[in-house]
């Protein structure tokens, strides 16, 4: 088995003009090709970034707020055009951005291509969406009045993004705020500043004013906290851990002034429920992709496989066989399926968790031998656990927990719900009515039936969770931009002398 790129998903032609995945013509099945990817790419210096001094933020905020007052008056179509030009440029610069993702975030070539494509999709999708949602809506009213519902920008947003999708999630957050006419103070993850810097430089080159979109580098505890604390922040959008989302929420609640909205997309303890009718080969493929691809460093990744005891042995054997074929190593090599985890801290966390499981749980996939370089490689692992409730912590790595179940699948779903997270869920069954019923019963944002549970496609599979997994709205979906806007209803007495009906003509 060799991991394929994301399954090819045709997108609405009106939105993107072309099919998405695989459109770059990258053939990842070429396993004999061992030439380092970076040799084949233009040599690109990684941008050097400087940390922001929190003392400089009040002035930076003022510049942003002033510039944002102009930006919100720019017609939405022109803002959308700036995003479309940026999307075209990003597409044209795919090799450079892939190189940055491989160098800085240790993405495999396949993951890097998919991520650049996702960022392009976010830019184009929010351009289209902004034009759609920001069009004034005329509402039927009583005779003698006109009623118009308008959406306007809220002001300056703070965007705090993670290292695991340092381009796609960063670009998605920023594009949503900009398309709707807001200013942005963005803080990328400390581990991945250069990719964000390159993206911001690109947006500036293609029509987004530099005061409207500012990048501020530094730690969450210092620069991130200082950004959130600026008086006048209109909203915060954050992707990362549940714990940090709550810190931000408390900080916002403690501020003087208006209630500030928080859009948070956080963690998950994602499960896949496999019943006795499921197709084992399909399950094994979906599990290997969902649990081990991207070294398990996706919030959508599979953590808990709940497999019916009747087919469990066969399924486990297939997963074990497939996992052993994965090439774990240097992400710059085209043949690599699984690169290193992001840093020493992530590596140590996974090691600690695996050491505990090795003592307490049945080891279903002993570690394969790994190359000495690069640092922080983690072999795919699989352990048998005894209860859903044993899953108390999201482990951000290629570690799969397996539970054998019998009885009613509804009971398993209830136990998964009781964990309190609610991001992704897989269901593998050949009984359609069961898939429907279990999907409805599950408190999760994204349900995937008879396929892998990662790689939500922008505009097609709106992504985001419930409960401990986030606040919504779903990124890449038709409701996302609404949260970045203020709503205003304008009611005009059209019978008044002077013909007030013309007042709204210019809107
Ligand atoms: C994340 O991992 O932080 O569906 C969220 C997916 C991605 C997940 C991004 N969109 O796999």
From TrEMBL:
| Name of the protein in its database record | Bifunctional protein PutA
The pathway entry for this protein reads as: Amino-acid degradation; L-proline degradation into L-glutamate; L-glutamate from L-proline: step 2/2; Amino-acid degradation; L-proline degradation into L-glutamate; L-glutamate from L-proline: step 1/2
Organism source for this protein? Hydrogenophaga defluvii
- Which molecular-function annotation in GO is an example for this chain? proline dehydrogenase activity
Keyword presence, Mitochondrion: no
Q: Which UniProt keywords apply?
A: DNA-binding, FAD, Flavoprotein, NAD, Oxidoreductase, Proline metabolism, Repressor, Transcription, Transcription regulation
**Superkingdom of the source?**
Bacteria
Q: Which family does it belong to?
A: In the N-terminal section; belongs to the proline dehydrogenase family. In the C-terminal section; belongs to the aldehyde dehydrogenase family.
